[in-house]
Amino acid sequence: MNDVAIRAEGLGKRYRLGQQGASGGTLLSEMLSTVVRGRDRTRVPLGDPADFWALRDVSFEISTGSAVGIIGRNGAGKSTLLKILSRITDPTEGTAELHARVASLLEVGTGFHPELSGAENIYLSGAVLGMRREEIRRKFDEIVDFSGIESQFLDTPVKRYSSGMQVRLGFAVAAHLEPEILIIDEVLAVGDAKFQAKCLGKIEQIGESGRTVIFVSHNMPAILRLCSRALLLDHGRLVTDGPTHEAVRMYLESDLGRSGERRWLDWSSAPGDDVARLRSVRVLPIGGGPAEEIDIRQPIDIEVEFWTGALDGLRPSANLALYNDEGVCLFITNDWKGRAVLDAPGGSRVVRATCRIPGNFLAEGRVLVTPAVSTFNPSIAHAIERDAIAFQVVDRSEGDGVRGDATNEWPGVLRPMLDWRTETDQPDDPT
């Protein structure tokens, strides 16, 4: 067996913008444009054709049996790269070698026909994806069971299915392919949470079977869980190729413009008013400097510094609101006790407030931190900066976290390790 499953050298894909085709247009396009503009109107110029490189000078090797993630913002070139690897489009320059049978899941529901039944579409979609009829027949019951589609709906045309049912059936077919290389693009962006967890588990199972998996997603926890290596693309170029946690950290910093630390050096331009202005906020693992990646088991401090002016009896205190990637508020906390330090005489000063979050409390995923400084009665937020910093919580599933030895999806916006008490009793004497 070849140790290299995929080899790409100098891949590039160029598109010509503002060009209708080799002859400048087709009969149909000319007819339509004439109708829209009117026969006697001056032709509207399309502009000079320009080169747009969706991908440029991308080189890498992927070994057999590895799981590799491809990440980057929208328009980075991820889908173009997958289309080249899937043989859907040819590169303008460079070469891509694939040394095994390839299947691509670039769109869930490929090959579905709305007038055919669910059962008929299983065969049709499977054939489009490259499965043999005997292979589909052998796996038919498994596909139906995985999809969760009830048997009475299998003979119903899929045009009468809900979008969720179509997505589940489409992924169920694709998930039962048996290629040596599986290329997957954003399947976790569709369906409900339960279905997404099922997809993730299936992809993980495919990777553990020794097949090569190429996985594209904007879901960073999924990338971290499934892939040991990641490629980060930006504007069509390969920015980094290395361990997943390093690539994800670089992606989050560059894509969001946020990191684990934020400072405002100029008092006059810092968020706030005459009562309080933010000076800095940062995430600090215990015993370390500012960080953007946190082990789920590790306690952390979130430190907020702010300037205060003439207080006139006001006692501002620091607040933190933590959110996940989906905008769900994880919790809000306030430094009530710390206000007492402001009772001491003195004028303007810098206040540093630190909130400690215990290990085994946050769930894995990206956490966005909004710091604020407020006074109460009445409640006024004098300084606030939404999503000022961000950090990634990583669950490495090494057996000493909340998961224990479990590797399945673990839902919830928080993941606290709680105290349990287990006891045993002697069974009652049945006699």
List its traits:
single chain, alpha/beta, Coagulation Factor XIII, Chain A, domain 1, 8 helices, globular
Describe the structure concisely for a colleague.
The protein has 8 helices and 19 strands.
Write the topology of this structure.
Elements: E1 4-17, H1 27-37, E2 50-63, E3 67-71, H2 78-85, E4 93-98, E5 102-105, H3 118-128, H4 133-147, H5 163-175, E6 181-185, H6 193-208, E7 212-216, H7 220-226, E8 229-234, E9 237-243, H8 244-256, E10 261-263, E11 276-285, E12 293-295, E13 300-308, E14 317-324, E15 329-334, E16 349-357, E17 365-375, E18 380-384, E19 389-394
Parallel strand pairs: 3-7, 3-8, 5-6, 6-7, 12-19
Antiparallel strand pairs: 1-2, 1-4, 8-9, 10-11, 11-13, 13-16, 14-15, 14-17, 17-18, 17-19
Helix pairs in contact: 3-4, 3-5, 4-5
Give an account of the 3D structure.
By secondary structure, the chain is α/β, with parallel strands linked by helices. It has a domain of 134 residues: Distorted Sandwich (Coagulation Factor XIII, Chain A, domain 1). Helices cover 22% and strands 32% of the residues. A 6-stranded mixed sheet has the order 5-6-7-3-8-9, with helices on both faces. α3 crosses α5 and α4 crosses α5. 34% of the residues are buried. About 6% of the residues have low confidence.
What is the ordering of alpha helices and beta strands?
Answer: EHEEHEEHHHEHEHEEHEEEEEEEEEE
Strand order of the largest sheet: 5-6-7-3-8-9
Which range best describes the helical content: under 10%, 10-25%, 25-40%, 40-55%, 55-70% or over 70%? 10-25%
Q: Helical stretch count? A: 8
Mean pLDDT equals 82
Largest sheet: 6 strands, mixed
**Structure class:** alpha/beta
Share of β-strand residues: 25-35%
> Would you state the CATH class of one domain?
Mainly Beta
CATH topology heading of one domain: Coagulation Factor XIII, Chain A, domain 1
Q: How far from one another are the termini? A: 65 Å
Overall body shape = globular
CATH architecture of one domain: Distorted Sandwich
Number of strands: 19
Low-confidence stretches: 20-37, 39-48
